[in-house]
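Budget justification aside, the reviewers requested a transparent look at the raw inputs and outputs of the sequence design task funded under Objective 1. We therefore reproduce one unedited record. The lines immediately below are the structure tokens for a 176-residue chain.
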């Protein structure tokens, strides 16, 4: 069996993860591309048993905390599906500049695709205890505040911060 490139250990435990668009391209400034990510998480929650404890989507990367048996396969599926759908959307919108950058960023050894959307791998960090979970959730939710996009975490539309304030978020999550 091949070695997982995701470095996910003890898949029965929650993991904090980061996925980044190649070249840090600003793709998630379009509501339609964000919706593809949200829809994918919702699908995985309903069909794979994914527990999504928190997330934030910024213009060129996202952070999330999740848990599911075979988390590495779930993340690989998430990245493959979202990449294909987002590239399809960009082609429909004739976003030629972005598509050119995604084509250029394609690793030289990749022969099975025309574009590279996500950076290879995913930064995965196992959540060891309650303190670490709170720390990571706070980090995720504070990200847009630190960048100066909003004054309060729950005001960032593409985050689970509202869910933790008892407000309706864009998608259902598994509140910790």
């Amino acid at each position: 069996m091949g070695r997982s490139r995701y470095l996910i250990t003890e898949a029965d435990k929650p993991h904090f993860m980061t996925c980044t668009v190649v070249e840090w391209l600003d793709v998630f400034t379009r509501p339609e591309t964000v919706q593809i990510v949200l829809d994918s998480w919702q699908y995985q929650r309903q069909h794979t048993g994914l527990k999504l404890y928190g997330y934030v989507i910024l213009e060129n990367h996202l952070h999330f905390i999740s848990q599911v048996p075979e988390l590495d396969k779930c993340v690989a599926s998430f990245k493959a599906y979202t990449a294909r759908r987002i590239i399809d959307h960009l082609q429909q919108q004739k976003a030629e500049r972005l598509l050119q950058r995604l084509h250029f960023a394609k690793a030289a050894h990749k022969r099975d695709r025309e574009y590279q959307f996500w950076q290879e791998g995913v930064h995965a960090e196992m959540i060891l205890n309650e303190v670490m979970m709170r720390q990571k959730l706070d980090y995720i939710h504070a990200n847009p505040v630190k960048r100066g996009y909003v004054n309060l975490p729950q005001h960032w539309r593409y985050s689970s911060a509202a869910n933790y304030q008892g407000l309706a978020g864009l998608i259902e999550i598994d509140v910790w």
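The first helix runs from residue 31 to 47. The mean pLDDT is 92. Computational costs for records of this kind are itemized in the attached budget.
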